[in-house]
Every structure is written in C-alpha cells, then in structure tokens.
Design brief:
The protein is α/β, with parallel strands linked by helices. It is built from 10 helices and 14 strands. It has one domain (3-141, 148-321): Metallo-beta-lactamase, Chain A (4-Layer Sandwich). Helix content is 40%, strand content 22%. This is Beta-lactamase domain protein.
C-alpha cells in the first residue's frame, strides 16, 4: 500500500479511475507533524486508501499539518479539500497553479466544456468524438470536491520540512506552474509529472494556457537534467534512478515525434488528422483522446514557433502545413 523511501518519507500510491490506475502521493515527516504532497482524485476507493494508510502508520488526522499540491490536475489536487476538512491542514500551491485552479475548477463547468469543444472543433475534431469529450469534461468535477482555501508558496525561498531543506522548482510543460521539490543535500527530487520512468509526460496545449508549452517543457527538461539527482520520485509509475539519462530519452522522444508530425502535416492537415496519424483514435477513451489532441497541438504549435510549419484558417478549421 505504501512504501518507505527514507525514514521520514513515504510513497503512497492512491488509486485513480484512469488508465494510469495510481497516482503517487508522498507523506513527509516534519517537526510540526506530517506533510502530504499531492492527494489523488476524490472517490471512495481513494478515501479508503488514505484512511488505511494513516491507520497503519499510526497517524491521526490532526497530525496532518500541511498539504502541498504540485499542480492543478484532478489526480493531484482533487482530494486536497477533503483532506483539509478532516485534518485542518493548510493547502499550498505555486502562484501560477493557483491561477490554473481558478481557471479549471471555479468557472461554470458547462462554459468551460463548451469553450473546449469550440476549440477542438476549430482543430478538426468530429462532432461525435467532441461530444464524448464534452461529457467527460462535465464529469470531472465530481473528483474535485470540496475545493480548499489555497495559500501561495514563495518559490524563491527554500522550504524547511523536518531535517530537509527543499528547493521549490518551477517545472512548466505538463502544467504551467507545476512544482517540484529538490533536496540537494540528499540528491532527492520529488518530480511530480515532469519526468516519468517508462511513459512520457503529457504536454498539452489548452485554450487559455501558455502559448508554447512544449518549448517551455523542453527548456525546463534541459535545466532539470543538469541537477544532481540520486533518486527522483515521480507522480506516476516507479521511482527513477538514472534521472539524467531519462531526461535525455524524453527529449529525444519529442525530437522524433516532432519530425514525424512535421512530415505528415506538410501537405496541410488539421490537428485532429495529425492526432489520428500519431496516436490513432479508435481505441482511445474520451479521457485519452482529449490529451492526445492537446498533445498533438502542443507539438504543432512548437513546430510553428520554430518556423517549420505555418497555420492557415480554411472555412471554420485551422490547417497546419509547410512554410511556403
């Protein structure tokens, strides 16, 4: 159920109703009590897992003093309010991600779903698939309840928790303001979803997020590869031992994906057509398709920014094609 990483740090896999099956959350012993890093999605099985974990470790709810959420996605943020209500703990995020929470979870959900559907239609998504994604977006709010009061982390200052001094690192790409925690003395990195062991993190372009998330991600990945990391604790799957090598592998993956997408789109394609080519769509769930199309868009916009593709609007759709 949970795994000790060090004497003061536990990895707690929390089940999520997604293909990934689990999100890795972390429990850190501090002088004032316990700190939870990421929380999971709010549903019964996740609640039961947290209850059982605290019972087995002999942790009372009142001993949870602080909750740190690395980014706004529901598998990391979703249970923060539930946990804060039971423990009285404060909930902390980076300033950029607090803005992301406001955008994702506080505007009327039908408006957000409609806005996203319009965005996908512009990029060639067929109506039947777009409707499935619309419903999936509407369903997401059940996993994010209640919404906690958020406090802002000072990203310029180290965070002292117990015997460890953590640098707070901005890790854009997967989420605009994603936060990682780095203990340089122990060469230990809580890397969230910035780098994963055996899958590549999803880098998506959303209507109101940063203009070129893949450019941000690749630049950040290069900076992270320079860190001395003995062990990286990721948001999904297993811990990463050879961290620098994994950073280079992910960068190489994106280089190859960019070349393939540029070649395919050169004659003029919508993002959905490129998505079909790169990912296939017949076997994807609405959840997976939503991330596939937005990841495709992140790559196409990166290619546009590099001068390798351009866009044209034809009728009511955007086409990507070679520069003339």
């Amino acid at each position: 159920m949970f795994e000790p990483i060090t004497t003061d740090l536990y990895r707690v896999p929390i089940p999520v109703p997604l293909p990934l099956k689990y999100v890795n959350c972390y429990l850190l012993k501090a002088d004032h009590g316990w700190v939870v890093i990421d929380t999971g999605m709010r549903y019964a099985q996740a609640e039961q897992t947290w209850q059982a974990t605290f019972e087995q470790l002999g942790i009372a709810w009142s001993q949870i003093k602080q909750i740190i959420v690395t980014h706004y996605h529901p598998d990391h943020y979703g249970m923060a309010g539930w946990m804060a209500e039971r423990s009285g703990a404060s909930v902390w995020m980076s300033p950029i991600e607090i803005q992301s929470v406001q955008r994702a979870w506080y505007q009327p959900l039908p408006d957000a779903a409609d806005h996203l559907a319009d965005f996908f239609e512009l990029h060639g998504m067929p109506n039947d698939l777009n409707r499935q994604i619309w419903q999936h977006t509407m369903d997401a709010s059940q996993y994010v309840d209640p919404k906690p009061l958020l406090q802002t982390l000072d990203m310029t200052q180290p965070l002292q928790l117990g015997q460890r001094s953590w640098q707070l690192l901005h890790a854009p790409g997967h989420a605009d303001g994603q936060l990682c925690l780095y203990d340089a003395a122990d060469q230990l990195l809580i890397v969230a979803d910035h780098v994963l062991a055996d899958i590549t993190p999803n880098i998506s372009l959303w209507p109101e997020a940063k203009r070129d998330p893949l450019a941000d991600y690749l630049a950040s990945l290069n900076e992270f590869a320079a860190l001395d990391v003995r062990l990286a604790l990721a948001g999904h799957r297993k811990p990463i031992m050879a961290f620098r090598e994994r950073c280079h592998e992910i960068a190489q993956h994106h280089d190859q994906r960019l070349d393939l997408m540029q070649q395919y789109a050169s004659t003029g394609k919508t993002a959905f057509e490129v998505c079909e080519f790169a990912f296939g769509v017949t076997t994807l769930s609405a959840h997976q398709l939503r991330f596939a199309i937005t990841e495709t868009l992140a790559h196409l916009v990166y290619l546009e920014g590099q001068g390798r593709l351009q866009r044209e609007q034809r009728a009511r759709q955007i086409i990507f094609l070679d520069q003339h």
